[in-house]
User: Fold this.
Amino acid sequence: MTSAPGRRSSTFTRLLRHGFTDPSAAERLLDGPELVPVRDDPVLLDALGATADPDLALHGLVRLLEAQTTATDRQEVLDTLIAAKPLRDRLLGVLGASEALADHLARHAGDWRALVTYEARDLHPGLTEFEDGLAGVTDPVSLRVAYRRCLLSIAARDVCGTTEVSETAAELADLATATLRAALALAEADAPEDAALCRLAVVALGKCGGHELNYVSDVDVIFVGEAVEKGDGADEDKALRAATRLASHMMRICSENTVEGTIWPVDANLRPEGRNGPLVRTLASHRAYYQRWAKTWEFQALLKARPVAGDLDLGEEYVAALRPLVWQAAERENFVADVQKMRRRVVENIPTAQVDRQLKLGPGGLRDVEFAVQLLQLVHGRTDPSLRSGTTLDALKALAVGGYVGRADTAQLDAAYRFLRSLEHRIQLYRLRRTHLVPEDEAELRRIGRSLGMRNDPVTSLTREWKRHATVVRRLHEKLFYRPLLDAVAQLAPGEARLSAEAARERLVALGYADPGAALRHLEALASGVTRKAAIQRTLLPVLLGWFADSADPDAGLLNFRKVSDALGKTPWYLRLLRDEGAAAENLARVLSAGRLAPDLLMRAPEAVALLGDGEAGGLRPRSRAHLEQEILAAVRRADGAAQAVTAARGVRRRELFRTAATDIIGSYGTESQPAEADQGALVDLVGGAVSDLTAATLAGTLRAVVREGWGDTLPTRFAIIGMGRFGGHELGYGSDADVLFVHEPRDGVDEREAAEAAGKIVAEMRRLLQLPSADPPLLIDADLRPEGRSGPLVRTLKSYEAYYRRWSLVWERHALLRAELVAGDEDLGRRFVELIEPLRYPAAGLDEEAVREIRRLKARMESERLPRGTDPKLHAKLGPGGLSDVEWTVQLMQLRHGAREPGLRTTRTREALAAAQAAGLVSEQDAATLDEAWVLATGVRNAVMLVRGRAGDTFPADPRELAAVGRYLGYGPGHAGDMLDAYRRTTRRARGVMEELFYGGS
Assistant:
């Protein structure tokens, strides 16, 4: 085969054409002594070229021939290879796909004969054939050799296409079953006295239990043990100890490394209590655990339980005892949420660098298919025994036959699952290592692609097919659960099986719907018909139903979506928004199912749904105060009269309240593309600033409208509005009143009485217009923090304020002035008012002891007198221990005492003042963090209560669904409302301790 220097031989060219990537090395091997008798036989080269990796197959063949001990043996291999096509295809197919099995043949040169047999029973062997193949093993080493010999035949049928992927997986599970039986027999032979004491059943879970095993996978098992003779407790204890020794020994036989390597790990961690629980339990102990303590995922794991080794009668008793509990799992509270949460947790735990290559656990991977199918089985298998298969593809087929999954979706998912499993098999077969990562190396991708029949550009073809199937799975795995709900109430394709009404109700209950009948009626109204609206909604609803189910109140989400759809369904932009703008549909689902406030605001003017999109009208970030004032004042100028102007201002306020609430909800819940806001303080600040700015802009517009209607362009007195309390501190909540002071100053030459009358009329008219019944929420103005409280005049001149504060001001009034800030009206007058009160709220000498005692008395009286009766004080966000009042009074006492000499304390904002106090050394970093955490949490609770209930409140709701919704807003998943309350008590208890030391204890 040699050629002239510098010229490529014809063999070199033929090797390239046959798929060799290193033809020079291949040419040398073909010229070697092992292949001399057949090197010119075209049959050999054609057969090598048909393998996944011709270079690997040729190298493995040469090693096999080198391993033959005699020339006769070598010739027998070659003669059979050339003469017998079935052996040729099998042997070279295995050598070209698996380096590990080539290593085995090089060590055990006679095992190639296992591939010669080509009888009918050899084409589809079962458990009996594999038990025969392992018969006669005497130790762990011989077990490994026999196991690999059996594996050779499975791999040969697989790579040659004699068996398809589900048959290969079933054969691997049967081989694993035979191996577990052989390993247990070895363990029993080593300890016959233990075997005599106990009955031990080995129950397979996972892929082995489901008859769908990989080439290399942990084999998940549970052990059940009983005494041979039922007697007293001592016999049972002895039996369990003996069973535990046998089980441990069996696991070691399979898992430990020997000179022949390992088989696979036997994993018993799915047993009750996991690694912390006993390895072997009695049947009664298993039953008691699953009845009392088991979590949802543990029942999901039992779905594939199958006795495989040991005492099979005991194994069957175990399955029969626990199977009813498995099919009751869907009745558990938060069942669907728990299953989906577990799936999300699996994805979140994948290292970032591996997510895109994870074939099993990543998005669009095998686990997505398996989880979706198991979820449907657990929901509907309660009433339909035909769904109770442990094998994924069989269960998927049964779901389609029963109408639980659409036929087209089933076909796509079946094809995707088969492809992904085939890809997984080929990846693992190469080195017989447990991996689910698609390799990055081009040579490996080329070998895998060719093994799957992709001969033209295998790397590109494989990558394209993999991504296509993963996309199908990602799109279908949630739709699979929700789509048939629509088919149950809408027009179906001819011949399509329909989900029964009862099955649809079962599924809705599992999703958390309290009124499945009403939900089905809503779905029917939304999805029925042949209109463009119905068609688009049929496409959207499967995804929307999933998002609604992820909330605390799916019923409200679906009802509110129907209301919005009824109001806007005929407007083209609405349907286009939901269909084309990726974020809009999910944002809408979150907003509609998070509580009452945001949907109520939206229903009053549904066109505000445009804010939820990505387009020009979208944008959830609250607008600046200047922008808001500009819009409102422009509307006032265009209006015909004050009433119309204030109606326009209130409309802007309603729309912007919705924008802020939507931003808050979406930030708290997170979306598929944007995780939830980790900093609760940032959300609290955003809401407080946005609502305060919006209130200020609304008051500015209302003031302008009233003045314009009553006096034209010039009012006889300068007029300013001073924000107080949370308003002045930029900390308003959704349901807060606007605490204010009104101040005026007569213009030159204007009679004081005329000026006072004008100012009074302005205040009265503003309050009236902002509270008129309308579709927009009222804005209540509260002036009770004025001098003399409710007994004093509503509006005073600047001079009157100055005289009052100089002679009569009380400690509580100076305290209240800490939050005073101009919010609307004459800027110069407002600035002079603030200058007037500076010495009062930041006294140069600080506070004397009598003033400090008075503040402490006021605080103590407020704690004892103002808490509503029947309220748990520890859960009152405003007045309870460690709540808003505790933190704010602590910070404000520091401002009164030290504000004159610490400029940073001269702010109306609580968190800003607390940070300044820490910077000034007035409070430790740890204490400041404790107070800040409690203030943010209490404010978040108040915001959540308003969002959920649609009305203001300072305590956690008593209604379980409302409480769960508050928990969801605060980051607590389904079933964790108790954890939320415990965390609140812990946080506020720490804050109260700090408050008592700083407020009551300090000098």
